[in-house]
Amino acid sequence: MKNNFVVIMAGGIGSRFWPVSKSLYPKQFLDLFGTGKSLIQSTYQRFSEIVPVENIFIITHESHLEILKEQLPSVSDNQILAEPIMRNTAPCIAYACHKIKAINPEATIVVSPSDHLILDEKNFNESIIKALDTASEEDRLITLGIRPSRPDTGYGYIQYLDGSAKEEFKKVKTFTEKPSLEIAKTFLQSGDFLWNSGIFIWSAKSIIKALGKYVYELNEIFAEGERHLNADTEKQFIALAYQRCPNISIDFAIMEKADNVYVLPVTFGWSDLGTWSSVYDLAEKDFSGNLSIPSKNVMFYDSKNCMVSVKKEKLVVLQGVDNLIIAESDNVLLIIPRDQEQNLKQILTDVKSKHGSKYL
């Protein structure tokens, strides 16, 4: 157990959940389902049952430090990695893994997003432990792959080599970013594609070796500065180091290139909660397909298939509407048809162009 570590990535801004998720208070800190816990609190609690709490590290943007400490007060300052600027997942993973290696060279590490929903936590825990055990013994870069239930265009896909049926960990053949609907249907029919969960497991030695081989310049930034990690000079070092880091994802930097990538197919009720529709699909709705979270003060009349997210104390009355997303936060109200949610990206671009960052 002492060699097992977790890195929770909490640096995103969740723009597809705008306006409830904003740059100063993004979705990982929100209680989207009205459970009394934010997504990052749920993620932290889930991993605290797998590894020692002192081995859980969280990486986030420095502007979110106050929120993070408020929501997870038991986490020490050395367990919080503050990014001065956003540089995608490869730099933050390189930072975290070098920091953990400096603490424990024999570390095996889970890297996970902070904002996923896991329905079957027992199955999840068993899968993580199985992957940790394998990664500690073999030079493998492991990811968890979700058995697809539909031809979803919002996920990346992993194709694996079938190999031996007894081999639980499948060797990865290709990664494919979000495909078209027709290609996604083909993937589903072939039976050898999985959704990319974005959850990775590897030893500190294996990932740092891969970083050195495939993104040498990025790896050298943190290798040369390893003496500053876990020291009083860490913050100053990171401020300069991140200026030199490329903006690159771990998938593109490592996982698509390395020849020792394996996937463990899993089925534990997973969603990356990437869109309003993903929450709508998972949450319990009334007999007309209406959903209101976290507020229960929403009255529906002759309305169906609507999703409402407003503050708990607000009363909302809907009459004669169908298939809408209605979301409110402070000075923004969004009303958009559920089947046009993909237009949010352009809407946010237009809002920024017209109003700057005031509403973002």
Automatic annotation (TrEMBL):
It catalyses: alpha-D-mannose 1-phosphate + GTP + H(+) = GDP-alpha-D-mannose + diphosphate. The keyword GTP-binding applies. Pfam families: ManC_GMP_beta-helix, NTP_transferase. Keywords: GTP-binding, Nucleotide-binding, Nucleotidyltransferase, Transferase. Its EC number is 2.7.7.13. Residues 7-286 form the Nucleotidyl transferase domain. One of its GO terms (molecular function) is mannose-1-phosphate guanylyltransferase (GTP) activity. Belongs to the mannose-6-phosphate isomerase type 2 family. This is mannose-1-phosphate guanylyltransferase.
